[in-house]
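Contributing new records

If you add data, match the layout below exactly. Sequence lines come first and carry their own label; structure lines follow with theirs. Keep one chain per record. Anything else will be rejected by the validation script.
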Amino acid sequence: MSQTDANRAKRRQVALFRTMNRLIRPLLASPLHGILSSRLMLLTYIGRKSGRRITIPIGYFDWEPGTVMAMSSTTTWVSSLRDGPTVRLRIRGRDHDAVPTVLQDTETFARFVEGSPGAARITGLPADRKPTPEELHAAAQRAHLVRFRLATA
């Protein structure tokens, strides 16, 4: 595939996600959220460069009590969370303030993949066997893992 074809494919993928997000955002914010909210949450943050308030749906995984994890293969929203600003999450119809931490170590990534059904598929790791340390390291470099600690009320 040429670079031009790859760029076109990437632009089509981005356009598809933007269209889907326009449909999913209001659904997750509505009383009908139960259809999707077991796997998707709304993340509201302030854009690092634009300074705008941005709300996007992202997949999440329950982790420890008071903590959820999210992962992205792009740095679009992750880069705005690197300084640990408080963000707003809407999970299962409830709003939470949360403090994000971008995690970059392979050990935490390996624990996340082992403890989260479906994470291996998302990261491109083999689902039929335990990944090798080299595969885990490479996947950890491609993926951006974020831990959100929910604020206590």
